[in-house]
Each structure stands twice: as C-alpha cells, then as structure tokens.
Amino acid sequence: MDRRHLAYFIAVVEAGSISEAARRMHLSQPSVSQAIKELERELRTPLIERGRTLTLTPAGRALVGPARRTLRAFDGVRAAVEQVDRLTTGVLDLAVGPALGVDPAVPLITRFSARYPGVRLRVHDAAPDEDGLDRLRRGEAELLLHTHAAAYPKYRSVRLPLSESFAVFPPGTGPLPDGRLGLAELVGRPVLMGLAQQAGLRAWFAAELADRELPPLSVVVETAHRDAIIPLVLAGVGATLLPESEARAAERLGAIVRPLDFTVPRACYLLHRGDPLSPAAQAFFDLAQSGLEHGRPPSGGGVAGKRDSAGGGTGDSKGRGDGDGGRDDQSGDERDDQSGDSSE
Predict the structure, then answer these.
(1) Does pLDDT of 213 surpass 70?
(2) Residue 273: helix, strand or coil by DSSP?
(3) Res 83: pLDDT
(4) What number is the average pLDDT over the span 110-123?
(5) Between residues 314 and 74, which one has the greater pLDDT?
(6) Which ranges in 116-243 belong to alpha helices (H)?
(7) Which residues contact residue 328 at a Cβ distance below 8 angstroms, ignoring those fewer than 6 apart?
(8) Of 28-37, 78-87, 119-128, which range is least confident?
(9) Helix or strand or coil: residue 155?
(10) 11 three-state secondary structure
(11) Residue 334 banded pLDDT, cuts 50, 70, 90
C-alpha cells in the first residue's frame, strides 16, 4: 500500500464513481480501477460494492477518515521539507459552525490569507450542536470553529474572543436613544433571530427580562438562513442583534445601529484533534491564538471601553461572564476519562 492507493480511493469516494475520479485526475479508468483492486487485496477486504451506483462497504466507510488523515500527513511531510520557515503552498480544511461565519471566521481568514497567500482555504459548514465534531472525526477538516468546546479527551480547543454585539433596526425606526440601549428598548419591538442561536439566546433573554420584570421578546421570525437576516431588517420586518462587522454593513445599507449596555452571551472555540497538525493548520491555530495575548478579538475590533463578550457562555450586564479568551480547561486528556472517546 502506498500514497497512490489511498489518493485514488479518496478520489473515487469524492467523485462518486471510478470513471469520474479517473476523469478528474486525468487518468485512464483501468488504472484507477486497478489501484482500488490492489488496495483491496492489500487490506484483504472489499472496499467498494460495484454495480450501477458506487457504494462503499462497511470496511470502505471505515477507511475514509484514516485515509484522509494519512494523505494529509503525507502532505505535511512534503510541506515541512519544502516550506521550512514559511508556508508557500498547501490546503487547509476549516469547518465553521452556524453564526460564526462572519465573526470570527472572516477576520481570521483574512489575516491568514494575507500572511500565507499560497495556501488554499476550504471552508465547510458544521452542524450547530456536538455533531459538528463529525467534520473532525471523519477527517474532512483539520480545524473547527464552533460554539461548543472539545467534548472528548483526544480533542483540543482554545476559546476565542468575539466582537461586541449591536442592535440593528429597520430604516426609519424611532424614537431611539442616541447612546447605548438597554433590554427595555427591545421589548415590544418585532425581533428576528437565527435558529442556530435561538435556543440559548431566548433562554438568556427570558431570564434577564424576568429579572427586570419586563415582558418577553416578540420574536416574529426565526431563520436558519443567516444571510436573510439583514435583508429582512432592511425590509422592515424587525430588529436583530449582530456582531459589529455585520451591524456596520447593515448600517451602510440604511439600517439604524445602536450599541448595547449589556453583553450578549456568545462563545467560540477553535478545535482540532489531538493529532499533530499540518503546517497550514498549525499556522492558522497560532494566528488565532495570537489575538488572545492581550484579550482582544481576532479582528482587533470591538468598541473602546466596552467589555468584550469573548467566549461568554453566560456573560451579561451583571458581569456573570468570564469574558476572557484562552485554552479550554476541560479539553485534552485531563477531561474525565469515564466519558470515553467516542470520536474513534
């Protein structure tokens, strides 16, 4: 078995057929088919059920993740030799959970691409709950931006700061104070909320409003399509809360934006398996951590004098959030061993 066998196997998996894989790799179909047969003989088990459609056997499905990681390790060896002090080529697979595609993903990707223009970034979606870790488990991504910390002993995570959230209102909304808005200013107004953040935010708002003896929010739209939120605000459907970069973009389109006098709980972690990272992934991880040295968001954003909601799981205007970025204390091998490692 050599790298070629695994590369052809993954190409067939991704293409969905041997003929399509051969076309994409500019090879003859018999050569690809022969490589797959050689791999099956080496492993002493069928990997593909041949028929009108390509179907992986249980052994084939089990091979996909390890094969991807092995190919990435080969690439890491080559990159380590070729690049030495700087990354000049390579590919980095990054998975991003819902509500994190703009903040902090955009500033992180922008900084990384500016520093390593030769590295190609492939950004994948990740599920909003712990199923998002499947991207790492299957080897489809090396790094994951997610709202959940590492759940298993063989994963590592670091908490990243996030920028301040702002209230964003439809054009012509009024009257609104010029300064920071309190929770009371949102009560009685129609509100839009993303489904990825709905459960946690609604529970937090309910508790905060109850503490202040205020009625609940009037949520008129809950959407899984985050790119629809700003157009809905501009169309006058309702107000919403957005990270600073998105809020300012909406403001340029005519929305009314106000800072908040409370901190919205938001959390973000950068995760990876405990395996050694490729040079590109290590560079991205180091770049993300560099923003933690002075407790600033990765984008260097935020409003002076306003406490950042970095990694806030439970932060609010009463100061219950820790607000600090840093390595997750519960990730790594020191996590309760009794939980097991279902990632393998």
Answers:
(1) yes
(2) strand
(3) 62
(4) 92
(5) 74
(6) 134-137, 195-211, 229-234
(7) 149, 150, 157, 158, 159, 269
(8) 78-87
(9) strand
(10) helix
(11) very low
The structure tokens 């407790």 sit at 295
> 301-304: which pairs have CB atoms within 8 A and are 24 or more residues apart?
301/107, 301/163, 301/164, 301/244, 301/245, 302/163, 302/164, 302/244, 303/164, 303/244, 303/259
| Identity of residue 179 | G
CA angle 276, 282, 287 (to 5 degrees): 155
Whether pLDDT at 140 is above 80: yes
The CA distance from 60 to 65, in Å, is: 10
DSSP state of 228: G
> Alpha carbon of 54 to those of 2, 14, 17, 20, 29: distances in Å?
23, 11, 6, 11, 14
Confidence of residue 260 (pLDDT cuts 50, 70, 90): very high
pLDDT tens string 122-136: 999 888 776 778 888
Helix 58-83 and helix 3-15, axial crossing angle in degrees, nearest 10: 120
Lookup result for tokens 């070729």: 82
Rounded to whole angstroms, the Cα distance separating 214 from 208 reads 9
Asked if the model's pLDDT at residue 316 lies above 50, the reply is: no
Find the Cα–Cα–Cα–Cα dihedral 146, 151, 155, 158, rounded to 10°.
50
Residues 49 and 86 sit within 8 Å (Cβ to Cβ)? no
At 49, list the tokens.
């059920």
Asked whether residue 103 carries a pLDDT value surpassing 50, the answer given is yes
Q: How many CA atoms lie within 13 A of 118 on its CB side?
A: 11
Looking at per-residue pLDDT, the higher value among 304 and 9 belongs to: 9
Token pair 């970069």: residue: 245
Q: Who contacts 115 (Cβ-Cβ below 8 Å, separation ≥6)?
A: 283, 287
Q: Where do runs of H (alpha helix) occur along the chain?
A: 3-15, 18-25, 29-43, 58-83, 105-115, 134-137, 195-211, 229-234, 244-252, 279-290
- CA 40 → CA 6, 9, 51, distances in Å? 11, 10, 17
Parallel, antiparallel, or unpaired: how do β-strands 143-146 and 120-125 relate?
unpaired
Q: How far apart are CA 324 and CA 311, in angstroms?
A: 7
